[in-house]
Design brief:
The chain is an alpha+beta fold. The protein has 2 helices and 3 strands; from the N terminus they run αβββα. The two termini are 22 Å apart.
């Protein structure tokens, strides 16, 4: 996440909950300046983060590629239970 946006949620290294219409996942938060403000990035291939459950699996009509790289997401500080 962009450092300015991440500062509203907590410190780097703390767990955050990522929620979309399709699901919820808990991951740790890293602050990185290359990420534009109000956007977040999540690595897709890790089982412990499970980012693909949050995204739309609809296929692009031309390239037949899933829309795994775009989704509206709510980011919140994770509760102690969720991060344990």
């Amino acid at each position: 996440m962009h450092p300015q946006h991440a500062a509203q949620i907590g410190r780097a290294g703390e767990h955050v909950s990522l929620t979309t219409r399709r699901g919820r996942s808990t991951s740790w938060c890293a602050k990185t300046a290359p990420c534009p403000p109000i956007k977040c990035s999540c690595p897709l291939p890790y089982v412990e983060a499970a980012a693909n459950i949050l995204t739309n699996s609809a296929l692009d009509p031309y390239g037949k590629i899933p829309e795994f790289k775009f989704s509206a997401v709510r980011v919140e500080k994770a509760s102690v239970e969720a991060s344990a």
